[in-house]
Fe2OG dioxygenase domain-containing protein
Amino acid sequence: MRYEALSDLYYLPNFITENEENFIFDKVNSAPKPKWVQLLNRRLQNWGGNPTKNGMILEPIPTWLQIFMDRIDQLDAFNDGQIKTNHVLVNEYLPGQGIMPHEDGPMFYPTIATISCGSGTVLKFERKPIQDCDTEDANDLPQNVSLYLERRSLVLVKGHLYRNYLHSIEELKSDRISTEICNLSSLDYQDGDRIDRDTRLSLTIRHALKVCKLKLRLGR
Ligand SMILES: O=C(O)CCC(=O)C(=O)O
Ligand SMILES: [Fe+2]
């Protein structure tokens, strides 16, 4: 579903099946322990390489993950299909964990595809201060945008919502559905519902713009 008022946001419920959701949990949880990066309020896995300002050295993507990236690529969301996704960040949130307001920034093509597994959550967007926005019409952009990401859903974020907003997940154990939630009409929930969080895995699938292939010189 596309939100006309926010042409930069697409929300698709049931993008993956329950079997695929379980499959993702199995694969993520069977990754080697050093693959996890433990942060203060969540842990994550980086697949495809470590994006830095100087570029990302491409690392092979496992087939199980490539399946989902291919499915995103087929949606032609990234520059009408001209650009293929090359990076996946897996975030794990326990109930009560979240992510501070941030932007994904210029290292990535300005489109984010996120698959949610295991739990829903509210994802919040807040517009940057007018002077930090890259458009004359920033005043016409809503100040706050919230959406509820159901488990197994896909959300695509691009354009203004990528460039001129910060996004965050509050550190809560449950989420309250209200009319502020812009995708309310496509949810199985109603205004006033409170939904407990469970462990959530999100796959954030993007295209890192600057990549380099590491040339290994073996022998002489
Ligand atoms: O878990 C999510 O849906 C958001 C993750 C995110 O914003 C990020 O990793 O940059
Ligand atoms: Fe982000």
Summary: The first helix runs from residue 18 to 29.
